[in-house]
Fold GNAT family N-acetyltransferase.
Amino acid sequence: MSTKTLRVLVLVCSNRPGALGPAVGEWLVGTLAPRAAELGVELVPLALGDLDLPFLDEEEHPAAGAYRNEHTRRWSAIADAADGFLVVTPEYNHGMPATLKNALDYLHREWAWKPIGFVSYGNTSAGTRAVQHAKQVVTTLRLVPLAATVAIRLGDAVEAGQVRPATALAGAAHGMLDELVRVAHALRPLRERERPGTLPGPLAGSYVRPLTPDDAAEVTVLQRCCWVDEALANDTLAVPALHESPQQIRDWLATWHTTGLWRDGRLLGMARARRTGPDWHLGRLCVAPDQRGRGLGRWLLRAAEAAADPACSRAVLSTGARSTRNIALYESEGYRAAPHLGRDGTACLTKPLS
């Protein structure tokens, strides 16, 4: 499971003057805040009325992502950054409010493979018919509705415009958040495959994308696994990749162009590169031990070379002087030893870039 913080939008749907929605939303956020902190969740309250979305006014179908209006682009950015949604909705005439339907219709890709939970409120049905109506729509958008819900019957739970503290309601809200977190983590690989800049990888079901500082935990684990063989082959533990802290890895991920190869949410391999003068320096080329022998290291090396700055005239990399498998790979790809560039205990290799 990923260790990244989850960003959850708490959407308050009703914008009717005097609506109970803001009070329910405030109760929900306050009730969930301690549990959210324990689970690594950032709760972001948002009233749909504050978005000032007119009825859908985009010329292109939302699936095209060609948004013409600033209010659409703003809403797209907010929804895209979220990992899941909690919707606070009333029931209007056995259905969800038009504000929610309109907000859903504006976007397409931004919804895919994210969990959505519902907190409904009303009289006879406690708003549950609005939730059933909304579930028909959200599944079409590839949102994943949770089984856990919170249904607030106004006559039983509301007094003087506020939701009364109630153990049963709080327990239902906590259960819904717990389920959302589990589903959001499980769906993350599917979400990542949909993001701009993500490309198919060399293995069936794999994909590649640039790594960011938020990937430091996964990179830490991969490095510790991969550089044990390097340490054994060279009879030294003085291998930086074995000792870097997650914070140190976050720091260099912010400055290096690093490509990560993923499948089913697991980081299988990576390679980093950056320009130094006329040289394109490559490094941290690694593949998870159980995935070796499938050509992934060679594929990552070529991908790193293909991303070279056009101003660079050669690629430069280094490895342990006794790392014969690494050296054989690099030489088969056209690299040649450059002893004058090497440091103690390392072999430096270079290759002209056409």
Notes: The chain has a mean pLDDT of 93.
